[in-house]
Design goal:
alpha/beta; TIM Barrel; eight-stranded mixed sheet; 8 strands; binds iron/sulfur cluster
Length: about 230
């Protein structure tokens, strides 16, 4: 296997330690530049539009210093599945003994399938951005079908993953959330569905304003288990 990719610099930053981002693991986070979406509430503008400066070799060198101290590595961004050598990187991380979590918008089902089938990922957080009818409006991306393929695959093989939605009530209302819940229920999603409440920051991609009024959680459909957290 060519190791030329070690000189690539797709990474914007490394979070050295987190107890919150990878269930049941102490982890580091690798932040990949670039994204194929433009969610108005996204505050990761330097990551989405920026160039990476940290090489894969730098990241692996860092992770070597964390062997036996951390148990997991989160691959986030941006959209980490846009990085063309993600599979090779996952091999390297696995060789260091870490579990891997991937944060993804689900638009690269082929890569996700390869990673899962080669046991190169242990947990996935899959963004369910919006109902099909609103998907392009919110993400500026037309690939709901690709997201859907990823979702169906993970459900069918009963992979360890979570579906999650960031809620900004000016973009998604309670009916939209209930449409997503209905859809997950019909697809036999049996895990917890996470709703991430948008917290306002100034510098978002869409320069979006603060939420007018949070969604009324009492109106949320109870067909599946839901849980709330801050975004
Ligand atoms: S919030 Fe949207 S634009 Fe920002 S990184 Fe995630 S998918 Fe990309």
């Amino acid at each position: 296997m060519s190791r030329d990719f070690l000189a690539d610099s797709p990474l914007y930053d490394i979070t050295r330690f987190t107890t919150l981002d990878f269930p049941e693991n102490l982890a580091s986070i690798l932040w990949f530049c670039k994204c194929n979406m433009r969610c108005p509430y996204c505050y990761n503008t330097p990551i989405v539009f920026g160039e990476g400066s940290i090489t894969i070799q730098d990241a692996l060198n860092f992770l070597e210093t964390r062997q036996n101290r951390l148990t997991g590595v989160v691959l986030s961004g941006g959209e980490c599945t846009l990085y063309p050598h993600l599979e090779k990187l996952c091999y390297e991380i696995k060789n260091l003994g870490f579990k891997i979590k991937i944060d993804t918008n689900g638009t690269n089902p082929t890569l996700i399938k390869d990673l899962v089938e080669n046991q190169l990922v242990d947990y996935i957080a899959l963004d369910y951005k919006a109902p099909k009818e609103k998907f392009e409006e919110i993400t500026k991306n037309k690939n709901f079908d690709s997201f859907e393929t990823t979702l169906n695959f993970l459900i069918q093989i009963d992979f360890s993953f979570e579906a999650r939605t960031t809620v900004h009530s000016n973009l998604l209302d309670i009916d939209d959330i209930n449409i997503i819940i209905d859809d997950l229920y019909k697809r036999d999603y049996t895990r917890t569905y996470y709703l991430q409440n948008y917290l306002h920051v100034e510098d978002t991609i869409g320069k979006i304003e603060a939420q007018n009024k949070p969604i009324d959680t009492k109106k949320i459909n109870q067909k599946i288990t839901t849980s709330f957290r801050e975004f």
